[in-house]
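Lab meeting, item 3. Inverse folding demo.
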């Protein structure tokens, strides 16, 4: 039995990732605009399946899908002071229509709080209209100045799922933050991506928010990637856009808002985290092809093998399994390589030996193990394996994240760990900006924030100043 290897996957992750996007024909980053990539058919199919999970979870919680315009007039965009400050240097502007200079510049949305603002003002009248829970899945544009990376830091974010909600009370907005975090946890659980939830520090929250809770995951190179965020916006945008409702006692009150977003980073994480040196390993619920059938031809048996493969194919398709028969004129070895790279979870081989025993050989992509299965048991075994594979890759991903999350108890240990440069480091912290900032200055770690809604061991003393600590702080090298 061959073992699934993860050498290149972790040691040369950047190259591994580019190779997979390229060779598995997922995403072509050669488009001649910086930070823009092309979803190819196989990548598009993966994206579609991920979005199906996203939509079904949001819909089941009562969100309604909408579609806002891409263009935001400058005066609207500038209404919320903190928001503009945070985003202004990242905005692409449309300044001309044909030859004519526009009177009012139009922003390509970097996110849509300021687009939905004036509409919520029109849509919300009374307390009975609340809460409102909308979302859209669209392209957004950010003139990213840090090095761009395919799918991970792009300038056209093609798969930006942004939710916008409005509530009558602060308490209800707080409940919504929890519901949003629950929704995202479910989405990530469905696709087996491990996460930790960190409340970002004041100086790193979303522009215009009261506070930000981020979902972070550790990538194969040990660096942390933010794969989603939930923000409580308080009444900042409601005041800027004059979004009010009539209370039960006939008073006008500003609404309370939240917003939360994820992007194609989720797909990048899915591809990266489950992979190995041979390429992707797709969760069965996401895999565009769940079972690939490969004939092992042998002189005199070609027709019988072909016939059996076709029978298995139609049986699987009939039962709703996304199966495909690879009858191309290339060697079985090349086919194995080809579909392993593409992460197909299950491979069925049919050769002369199998025919003699009225069985097939089934190979799992995750463990690379192979087994012989009776012809009559194929469908049953395929269904079992899909569950086993999901469980296996999910628990492997979670334990990998836990192995790469470490505690540092004194400042030297922290610095040594920072130099090793993998994963998340947890320390006790007094809660002061000064101390967190010192760590960022002395190391190349960045503050992720404090664990959100988690049971933690009681902190003892601040790793920097030695005074009594009230918080845990998480740090990591980040994307
Ligand atoms: N309006 C809020 C919630 S929708 C918002 O824009 N939040 S955000 O700025 O944090 O973006 C949401 C998520 O999008 C981030 O957590 C991150 O996972 C992803 N994201 C942000 N910028 C990029 C980018 N340039 N490329 C890919 N994904 C990105
Ligand atoms: Zn301190």
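The presenter then showed the designed sequence:
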């Amino acid at each position: 039995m061959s073992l699934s290897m993860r050498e290149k996957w972790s040691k040369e992750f950047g190259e591994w990732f580019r190779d997979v996007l390229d060779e598995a024909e997922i995403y072509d980053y050669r488009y001649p605009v910086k930070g823009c990539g092309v979803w190819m058919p196989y990548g598009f199919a993966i994206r579609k399946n991920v979005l199906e999970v996203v939509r079904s979870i949001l819909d089941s919680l009562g969100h309604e899908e909408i579609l806002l315009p891409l263009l935001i007039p400058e005066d609207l965009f500038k209404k919320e002071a903190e928001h503009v400050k945070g985003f202004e240097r990242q905005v692409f502007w449309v300044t001309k229509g044909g030859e004519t200079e526009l009177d009012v510049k139009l922003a390509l949305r970097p996110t849509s709080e300021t687009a939905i603002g004036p509409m919520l003002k029109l849509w919300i009248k009374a307390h009975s209209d609340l809460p409102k829970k909308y979302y859209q899945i669209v392209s957004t544009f950010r003139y990213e100045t840090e090095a761009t990376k395919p799918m991970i830091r792009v300038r056209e974010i093609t798969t930006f799922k942004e939710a916008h909600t409005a509530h009558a009370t602060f308490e209800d907005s707080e409940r919504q933050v929890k519901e949003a975090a629950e929704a995202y946890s479910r989405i990530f659980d469905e696709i087996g991506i491990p996460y930790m939830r960190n409340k970002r520090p004041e100086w790193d929250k979303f522009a215009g928010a009261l506070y930000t809770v981020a979902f972070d995951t550790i990538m194969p190179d040990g660096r942390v990637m933010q794969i989603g965020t939930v923000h409580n916006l308080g009444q900042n945008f409601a005041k800027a856009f004059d979004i009010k409702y009539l209370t039960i006692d006939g008073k006008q009150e500003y609404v309370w808002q939240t917003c939360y977003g994820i992007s194609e980073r989720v797909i990048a994480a899915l591809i990266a985290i489950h992979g190995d040196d041979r390429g992707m390993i797709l969760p069965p619920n996401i895999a565009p092809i769940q079972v690939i059938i490969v004939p092992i031809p042998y002189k005199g048996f070609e027709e019988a093998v072909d016939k059996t493969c076709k029978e298995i194919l139609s049986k699987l398709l009939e039962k709703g399994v996304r199966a495909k028969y690879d009858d191309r004129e290339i060697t079985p070895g090349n086919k194995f390589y080809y579909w392993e790279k593409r992460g197909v979870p299950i491979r069925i081989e049919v050769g002369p030996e199998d025919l003699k025993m009225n069985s097939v050989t089934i190979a799992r992509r995750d463990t690379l193990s192979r087994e012989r299965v009776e012809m009559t048991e194929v469908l049953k075994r395929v269904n079992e394996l899909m569950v086993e594979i999901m469980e296996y890759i999910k628990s492997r991903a979670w334990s990998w994240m836990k192995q790469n999350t470490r505690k540092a108890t004194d400042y030297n240990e922290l610095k040594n760990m920072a130099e090793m440069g993998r994963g998340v480091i947890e320390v006790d912290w007094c809660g002061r900006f000064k101390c967190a900032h010192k760590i960022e200055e002395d190391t190349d770690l960045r503050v992720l924030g404090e664990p959100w809604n988690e049971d933690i061991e009681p902190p003892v003393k601040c790793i920097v100043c030695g005074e009594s600590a009230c918080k845990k702080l998480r740090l990591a090298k980040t994307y």
